[in-house]
From TrEMBL:
<protein>
    <submittedName>
        <fullName>2'-5' RNA ligase</fullName>
    </submittedName>
</protein>
<dbReference type="InterPro" id="IPR009097">
    <property type="entry name" value="Cyclic_Pdiesterase"/>
</dbReference>
<keyword id="KW-0436">Ligase</keyword>
<dbReference type="Pfam" id="PF13563">
    <property type="entry name" value="2_5_RNA_ligase2"/>
</dbReference>
<dbReference type="GO" id="GO:0016874">
    <property type="term" value="F:ligase activity"/>
</dbReference>
Amino acid sequence: MTPAHLLAVLPPPELASQVEAFRAPLGLRESPPHVTVKARSGLGVNLDWVKAARAVVDASPLFPLTVEGARTFRSGSAVYLAVTSPGLVALHVRLLEALEPAQRFGYEGPHMTPHLTLALGRHRVDLEGVFQAAREAFAHLEAQPLTFTVREVWRMRKAGPGALYLPEEAWELAGG
């Protein structure tokens, strides 16, 4: 099993609890609620990227992040809560520039779609049903989006295929 890493923002505890409470009765097994800042490309197992990534995070200002209602990707790959945060996208781009991954995912870059995954389209997951349930459960975020200030970025790790990403280490932003 090869471990994998990503960098992410964790939502406020109240929202994380709401997401977990939504997932539980549907039997959804997902990583703890998070918004990915930098996906695993260029984040090798040997952690030689940590120093450069941490320097970018350490030099980055605090930024606002707004969470809105439920959406689905056109590809049908996931149901998620929409996220708006130019600061998160800017941090993502700075990380790409600093890390220079040999390969990048097509969704990486200034066109990225920040989001908080509720459910991935895995075997036996009825994403249309999950989406309808999510629209109801998170309608309050559609009516009144939640905005919070991001003060730290988390290094998350999963042990290997089939495992979940888990938060391992928090890195404070400048002014955090």
